[in-house]
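User: Fold this, then the next.

Assistant: Folding the first:
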Amino acid sequence: MQFLRQVLSKVVRDGKLANNPVSLIKMFREPAGRLRFLSPEEEQTLCLAVGPECAPWVRLAALTGMRRAEQFRLQWKDIDFERGLITLPVTKAGRVQYVKLNGEAKTILRELDSMAAKAQAVTEAEAIAGRQKSASCRSQWVFPSENPDTHVDPRDFYRRVHLPKVKQAGLDGVTRHTLRHTFASRLVMSGSTEGTIAALLRHSSTALVRRYAHLSPSHLQEAVEKVTRFRKTEQPVEPEKQVPKAVAKGEGESAERRCETGLNPLGSVQTVTETVMGGYGRWAAE
């Protein structure tokens, strides 16, 4: 129905139809599907399934939340390692956007950069040795295809690599959006605010972020357990006050003389503090 509405709207704009009858029909909102995200164990399983060549792509997606097409179209010139920032010149939103890089994401990209440099050096050495006609220039793409002039095609990768490997690993419900959902869910579980998550996902509002709030039952269980800290504590029972004994005449003088010699008038067990608490105020005052 939505497709028909768009077609007729174009016909109206072309002046071939007075109005769009479909626009009068109320469209029901499509229910939100299940948000699938990977546990750390599932992520490791997926990395092992796709192999060492594609595992960096999987991990980088989980660390940055980049969309599949954004990641495969990534160029080296768009990466600022010093600032920890990726510039995305072409995005789904139709404007330039930025992706923040954490330490592990930068490490992965540096390793890919190092591997590309080594591969280029080998190619140049083979060209000099005559085993290859010419040394090809290093690719501008972070994820180049077999032809270094082009990047990996996102749809081809999803059909040829992603789907078969996911099935092989026995990971049900994992789609091309799962790694982005994984990134978002981990932000939620780390306690990030809706505004922070929306900014890192590059959403214009927090409306779409709220759908992640129910994720990770174990995380919610941990939060619920914290409520048990708020309980009524028992009031401490005050100890019975001791009635000070009457000090006989002359005892104070004797105690004072004994204190001057370094001896406790109450014996070796009680301290001076205990003496005061015990009611020997006269001796303590003197």
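Now the next one, as you asked:
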Amino acid sequence: MATLHSSRRAVVMAAPGLAGLVAAACGAGGRDAGSDGGLPKPAAGPMELRVATNTSIENMPGWERCAEGYQQKYPTRRVKLEHGTGSAYTEQMVAQQAAGDPPQIFYTSTPGIHNFGPKGVFSDLMPLVKADKTINLRDIPDRALKGYSWQGKLHGMPVMADTRYLHYNVSLFKQAGIPLLPREWSEDSFTVEKFVDYAQRLTDANRGIWGFAHGESFPLKSLYLFGADFWDNRDYTTRSTLDSPAALDALQWMQDTVHKWRFAPTSQQLTAAGVNNSDNAFIQGKAAMVLGGYKHTAAIFPKAQGFEWSIAPLPKGRGSGKRTQVVVVGFAVPTGAKHVAEAWDWVKWSTFQDGACAIMGWPRRRSLTRWTASSARRCQSGRPA
């Protein structure tokens, strides 16, 4: 089973003065959503719902379909998607909140929740959950909820999970006489030793092909493959464990892929070959294996021409069982945002209802809600609820 890795360590604010903006934004001590014990009432007339997101641009078509579905369900409402990138994405939200006009919905992963939730930047959604009889938090895995909760408060609603897995060039595998990789997580025959063997056999310097190209934070995944971790405790971190024997083995293994076995290029070699990252190396057929996630499978790698490709789980490592990183992301309602009722409807639509089908590009991405078989069939067929 995949391991949900998240830390309660605070995220360092990159911009000078951002901490001051947070303090100003929280100074008024806005009420929690639904803090009066009931559900808020929606606006009587037309309104605009602002949804801020920093999702990869490749994912935006799914978000647009989700917004269209929300508007069809609520004809008097219009959704404005506000896309941002980098540190400016969060800085803008905090500045807007300090000015009294934050977006109603803010898309964030667990580090954002840990940093801003306890400071009062995000509303506590638990009163809404308790007042709304149409949803059940038991539909969301406990470990995902844990990352969005603190001291009895729910600072956001986890909506989806994404992970990283192998994308590989099937055509190159066939040319080298290597068996295709397993598709099931439970298949343990594909080990890190076989990964190294395959990558070496796939490397062809004369043709400018590497067996594997690093990218998508593979050092992080290699730690998990060897049973290591960054921190001693995921709830209350006290020290780094990067000096543990397992972590040192993982980091040495990473170095060996480049300098000993020589099946993975350095960044300088990638640049010299005319590619600036692992994505382009794979698309151009210069890397037989790379890491990727939902956005790669759905939008980036379909651009590849002239060869067949597929996906596979990471190899079995030397630690106990299989482990990988799962990134949980969700929606928060900034404190002081207007139209909380409409914002709550968006949270429900995109998490528990048919909006989840669109925003996740069903069936390519895993929803955090435990859907029934009928829900899955409805998503695949495109039929409304």
